[in-house]
Write the structure tokens for this entry.
Amino acid sequence: MHRGILLAVIILGTLLYTQYGLLRVPAGMDTMPDSFPPGTLCLIEKSPSVVIPQKSVVFVDLPQGGTVLTRVVEIVGDDLIVQHDNPKSGLGFPGGKGAVELSWVRGLVLTAFHE
């Protein structure tokens, strides 16, 4: 009986570890300062199954290097159109808006824990 419970806990833990994770908004990230200030700890879904324009917030790994936190505003084919809440932020995209491939998404923010 105990072996079955232990096996179930190990399998569930492995599934949770591969599907979900934690990311902290790094210092200096000004893309979404009101909603997700630097230091905010975010629970993410690593392979998002659903992305909702205007509501979904994602961490995006950029091909030129670095990661930004931004909001999905539209879905066009296999690409996401993202826009920072702070359009003056120069991180990642000129004017704070750009297109990204779904494969660039490191994680969909499920919830945030503010310091």
User: Anything to note?
Assistant: The chain has a mean pLDDT of 89. The beta strands are 20-24, 41-45, 57-61, 67-76, 79-83, 97-101, 105-113. The helical segments are 2-19. The chain is about 15% helix and 40% strand.
